[in-house]
Amino acid sequence: MKQTITALLLAALAIPAAMADSPAEIRTQSFKKILRAFEPMGMVVRDRDPYNKAKFIAMADSLKQIAAEPFNHFPAGSIDGKSRAKPEIWSQPAKFQAARDTFLKAVNELDSTAHNGDLASIKKSYGVVAQSCKACHDSFRGPEK
């Protein structure tokens, strides 16, 4: 009985990933995972939630683990009806790669800063990650459809 329930739960968790079959859907889900990992840290750096070093490290580690995931899902021609990806992703690949690298470097720095435990430094590193997101969105993400 326990094995059946466990199998059903695992299958239910896998359904959203299985349904997200287009590259645009996969990267959208991946970016949403990043947001869900990043925003709780934002609550801490904006002093809306208390700082707990161990919890913050776990959040930063989680973000670092998934940060590169969506960037594997930008094959040429993968703009669909819901995609907010701009054509500049493919017409300016070096610029897009640089934006990705800036984001990943900022995430790695945030993770390192989290492990050091200095909240003032964490707040600064969080801001650098947020700015890297904004810069990429400004250049490569279109308006909501």
Quick tags:
72% helix; single chain; 6 helices; 145 residues; mainly alpha; Four Helix Bundle (Hemerythrin (Met), subunit A)
Give structural notes.
The chain has 145 residues and is mainly alpha-helical. It has one domain: Four Helix Bundle (Hemerythrin (Met), subunit A) (Up-down Bundle). The chain is built from six helices and no strands. The protein has helices at residues 2-19, 23-45, 53-66, 88-91, 93-116, 119-140. Helix 2 packs antiparallel against helix 3 (53-66) and helix 5 (93-116) runs antiparallel to helix 6.
Number of domains: 1
Strand count? 0
Detail the poorly predicted runs.
4-9
Q: Based on Cα principal axes, name the global outline.
A: elongated
CATH class: Mainly Alpha
Give the second-level CATH assignment, the architecture: Up-down Bundle
CATH H level, superfamily name: Cytochrome c/b562
Topology, please?
Blueprint: H1 2-19, H2 23-45, H3 53-66, H4 88-91, H5 93-116, H6 119-140
Helix pairs in contact: 2-3, 3-5, 5-6
Provide a short characterization of the protein structure.
It holds the Pfam family Cytochrom_C_2. This protein is mainly α and 145 residues long. The chain has six helices and no strands.
